[in-house]
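Hello,

I think I submitted the magnesium ion job twice by accident. Can you confirm which output corresponds to this input? Input:
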Amino acid sequence: MTTTVALKDVTKVFPDGTVAVDNVSFDVAAGEFMVLLGPSGCGKSTVLRMIAGLEDASDGIILLNGEAANDLPPRERGVAMVFQDFALYPHMTVADNIGFPLRLSGVDPGVRSEQVAQIASALGIGDVLGRKPSQLSGGQRQRVAMGRAIVRRPGLFLMDEPLSNLDSGLRAELRAEIAGLVRELGVTCVYVTHDQAEALTMADRVAIMRRGVLQDVGTPTQVYGRPATLYVAAFLGSPRMNLLEASVYVSLDRHVALHFGDQSLYLPWNDVRARHVAHFHGERIIVGIRAEALIPVVSSAEGDVIHGRVRYLEHHGHETLAFLDIGATAVVVDEMATQPASGSGAPNGLRRLVSRFAGRAVGGPGTDDVASHGRAHQNGSAESRFTPSDGGRHHRRPAELVVRLAPYPALTQGTPLAVRVRMEALHFFDERGKRIDVGMH
Ligand SMILES: Nc1ncnc2c1ncn2[C@@H]1O[C@H](COP(=O)(O)OP(=O)(O)O)[C@@H](O)[C@H]1O
Ligand SMILES: [Mg+2]
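Support: Only one job matched these inputs. Its output is below.
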């Protein structure tokens, strides 16, 4: 039988005072593949361990199949867990490793080997049943760990970054396999990862966490297409969403103007979002534009075009990303790196680029983002931090607008480039990082 899961206002405070999980609520339907996504340290494993019963909730209720399970011992929860550091028994063969849980529960050897063979073949490791773990590749070892979890036919799979120790090619292959297998079995799954691509490709729904707080829950299409917060917008997608600071000016007889430095975009009144954005007349908001919403055009003066100059190009083979200077201010959300950025607030990628293109040493603690770009900026400074409602932070720096181009374009540094903005694809957030058009559609 497959299990439903529900968390109601669940909080976990560790004895040292760390609030690892802060008032989190979400449901997982029977047979659903739910992915918990967020950077390292945001509380994902703690949520999973509370569902498994390995950790007590400090507050709130955990329901399994609709019944409070807070006091249920782990072995009575019908869950199987797969960890990042999947520990196989080194002295046992693959067959014995997979069959071990069955042996523990006294399943007859004949039945056991039949079930083991069936699962091993479903996992594509039927031909290595006689080998020891040391004779397997990383991917095969992970399949064995999966097999051992599956063999008991649990009602609920809990997987904690099961692929993060594998190299990227294998990860991509296994994520499709795992998602396919779990769906075939029809078992409910809560899968933890810090990798947004993994989340978007595998999940039926994604729950995104930051600092113990749940930010957004929805299908990949929903959270990617209509992120509830600035943080979710910044976390999902590659390349990252352009997040630009804009001043709003309402012109009642014409449009709502969004000023970025000395450039502007105009939201016509027949766009239903214009009224929501108009509330911010005279204030600054954050406008999100994904690279795919920017289309290079021959220079024009419409209200939906941004002009820039190529600062640098990044070739990815199948496409080239152009980063444009547009004289605007970007908003950078902290904690976007997998490992918490040390020292200065500059993301690792930025520091790498600064050092590559400016020919400078990588900035250490205290490096000023703006100064390390080699120019002053009129609107913002790296120190102008503000605190959004979820306790995280974002800061400002000169914008580098990322645009997708066909591979290896004939452009060089400094080339002017104009892009048309698909206005309907803009995202709007207030300065605290909350989506402005919430409650619409
Ligand atoms: N046993 C513990 N005692 C104190 N703090 C802990 C303990 N386990 C985890 N934490 C802290 O709780 C937070 C969430 O941890 P965790 O759930 O492991 O995050 P994630 O799995 O998202 O990386 C982190 O700040 C971590 O340091
Ligand atoms: Mg973890």
